[in-house]
# Entry
Amino acid sequence: MRAAARLLALGTLLFASGVQAHIASNGFLVAKVAGERITGSIELAVRDVELAIGVDANHDGRITWGELRASAPRLDQYIARHLHLAAQSSPCTLSFRALEVNARVDGSYAFLPWTARCGAPIRQLNVRYALMQDIDPSHRGLLTLTAGRVAQTGVLGGSTPLLSFDVAHPSQWRTALEYLQAGIWHIWSGIDHLLFLISLLLPAVLLRRNGHWQPVPSARPAFLGILKVVTAFTLAHSITLSLAAFDIIRLPSRLTESLIAASIIVAALNNLFPIVTEGRSRIAFSFGLLHGFGFASVLADMGLPDGARLLSLVSFNFGIEVGQLAVVLLVMPVAYLIRCELLYRRVVLPIGSTAIALLASVWLVERAFVL
# Structure
């Protein structure tokens, strides 16, 4: 049992320290249906474009606008091979316009407008998305589909490369399910939010006594500590997510993402140099307000459909909570099981927190200075 616990602890540590090797890979697909025609755009991170078709012609590790523009025809061909639209069962023909570049908080994105002609009025649209499938299985395409005043969304890729949309009679409950899935995927792919939460949860199975961390004597105080942290974080980000989603309050994306990185540093350093030990829920609530604005930026990319705005918002937020709960149920039983081991107090907590703080510091510099 102890050997298994040690392995699980090391796995947790490796996740915390090695997560910098993976940045969530998302493509953004927008489609607007009008009769037999679809207009839209697709955005792919320039780093993903490099992996897919090889853009860095001189292999200097830097991708210039000239290199990206010269690769535009190959990018068109790559997307045409891996993105397929069909009205009912009839394939639609894609054509692309001039390549552009869009700046997002996690880097530069290749922005490619397109038009699809389907040859018949579109009642049901089938979308197959296989971009990056053989390169990064974790890549997902976030689709926003609009027909008239009704918007639908979907998360494509992985085990779900194909989705079908009823354009003529969209279902609100289908839309709610899609937003639920989008919320789950966002929290699982948004490693900055996860690392903030993990930074607060790691000491939940410990008590600070006489300048040292000591294991909690029973499950009750650990459970209450976890419950307070998760509840405070959930309440806070739900407030700001709702305010931003309904355009009551918005913060610039660059500022929000920089402050989120700073919040992770504070939470991780508090484990190394404890100032707040009994009131971590206050940290969770205070910084959770910032994380809510971060969640809202993804929701803004997807949009809220008319006629189902509240339902979609609630579904997206519930998806975030489901994703969070899954992480808590994965991490905390392991932490509780090995809380009495020196390995946890002298390796997992300090080294894991240090790795998280260093990674978040890199993010802070990248986001603040748009590197």
Notes: The chain has two domains: 2-22+190-368, 26-179. The first strand starts at residue 26 and ends at 34. Confidence is low (pLDDT under 50) at residues 3-22.
